[in-house]
Each structure stands twice: as C-alpha cells, then as structure tokens.
Design a protein that fits this description.
It comes from Amycolatopsis coloradensis. By secondary structure, the chain is mostly helical. It is built from eleven helices and no strands.
C-alpha cells in the first residue's frame, strides 16, 4: 500500500506541474489537431483510398501517432527533471523505485486519455466516426493506450539515459521518421517494396491498422500477414517493448548517481 500511495502522490505532483504550465500542455494537445487539418485538407485531395474517404483513413492513424508523441514528451520531462535536480531530490526520499516510475507512467496515461478525447472530438467534427459499435471502439482505445504505455517506458528509459534536455532533441528528431515510416498517412502498399516491408512491421502501423479494422474504417485493402493479423501484432508489439524497456528504465534509475 505504501508503494501505491507513493505512486499516487508522485502522479499528483506531475499533474500539479502541468497545471502550472497549461500553455505547453495545450500546444501538445492541439498539435495533432493541426496535423489532421493539414494532411486531411491540404494533401487529402491527392489521396485516393480504395475503399473509403481519406479522412476516415487518416483519423485512426493520427490517433496512433498521438500515442507516439508521448515518447518524446516523456523524454523531455524526464531530462528536465534531471537537469533541475528534481530527480535527485526524489531519489533522496524513502520512496520505492517502482512508485516513482509508476507515478510518471500513470500521469502520462492520463495525459494520453485527454489527448485521445481531443482527437476523437476533432475526428467527429471533420466527419469521421467509428462504424462497428461500442465494444470494438472500446477495444480500439484500449490498444491505443496499450501502445502509449509501452512508449512511455521507452521514453522514461531514454530520458534517464540522456539526462539533459539538449540531448533529448535527438530523440525528437528520430520520432518523426518512425512516425512517417508507417501506415499512419498512407498504406505501405504504395511504397517501394523494401520500404513498405519496414513500414508494415512498424509497431505504429500494427496499431493503426488494427484500430481501423475495429472502427470499421478504410484499411487500403492490404492482404499481407501483418495487416490481416494486425490486432495480434498490436497486442504483441507493446508487450515486447514493455518487457524490454521497463526493466531497463528501472535499472537505469537505480544506477543514477553511481
């Protein structure tokens, strides 16, 4: 119970910090909205989705992309705490490592829920809608948060590893190729063979394709194994990432100051 109360208190600390800087949180929430408007209306006219409208293809992809943005935000948050000495002060307290990392992860998931709500409202306003009912829609949101949970641990580990906000810029730059080399904006079948194969097996593509299917939205009609088993991959990829990076993050945290 002590670890749970510690994690709750640390989650509250992060939420209070967000409350004190609403501008940066607002920018983080609205940036994906800007991307929807830009890709949907500036470039969408050139996109011919075989089995539907491009916006119906784009919105699920952007929901998945929003989960990826949590990785770079987490790296910046962790390195900023380290640079300001916050991390060392918390480490000096009688608080379990699991509680500290769990508190940060829980706060990030709450932020992800708000981000999803903003994106869903945006999608509804531009004409997108889930087509397969409540339970598949709920399952799709579960897959999105599952992916965000995995990316959270990747971000925590990289933030602890890099330690300074300046070095976090490298992660922010690398996030974009990962995001674009996926099925978020276009189908891998439109890419050259080798590039399409990489895009197809991208964890982001697995979740984007899976939630399109669960929402009943256009999927571009791919018939490869990864596309037809996208829900399985959307469950497996975050599990693999979490199994790798959660222990690495805990070990890196314990190693701080040595």
């Amino acid at each position: 119970m002590t670890a749970i109360s510690d994690a709750t208190a640390l989650t509250g600390r992060i939420l209070l910090h967000w409350r004190q800087r609403p501008g940066s949180i607002l920018v983080g929430l609205l940036f994906p909205v800007l991307m929807v408007l830009m890709f949907g209306y500036l470039f969408g006219g050139a996109m011919a989705v075989p089995d539907g409208e491009y916006l119906d293809f784009l919105i699920p992809g952007m929901l998945a992309m929003t989960m990826l943005f949590g990785l770079e935000a987490m790296v910046v948050a962790v390195t900023t705490d380290a640079a300001k000495g916050v991390t060392e002060r918390i480490r000096a307290m009688p608080v379990a490592t699991t509680a500290i990392l769990a508190g940060r992860s829980a706060a990030d998931l709450l932020n992800a829920v708000v981000g999803l709500a903003v994106m869903v409202v945006t999608g509804l306003l531009v004409g997108w809608a889930p087509e397969r009912g409540f339970l598949p829609t709920l399952a799709a949101f579960g897959l999105l948060l599952w992916l965000r949970f995995a990316f959270t641990w990747v971000g925590i580990y990289l933030g602890l590893l890099l330690k300074t906000p300046e070095s976090a810029v490298a992660v922010q730059i690398l996030v974009w190729p990962v995001g674009f080399l996926s099925s978020v904006f276009v189908s891998p079948v439109t890419m050259p063979g080798w590039l399409g194969a990489i895009s197809t097996w991208n964890p982001l593509s697995a979740t984007a394709t899976a939630i399109r299917d669960l929402f009943g939205n256009p999927t571009w009609g791919a018939t490869d194994w990864a596309s037809t088993h996208s829900v399985t991959l959307a469950l497996l990829w975050p599990a693999v990432l979490t199994a790798i990076f959660l222990p690495l993050a805990a070990r890196q945290y314990r190693a701080l100051g040595r």
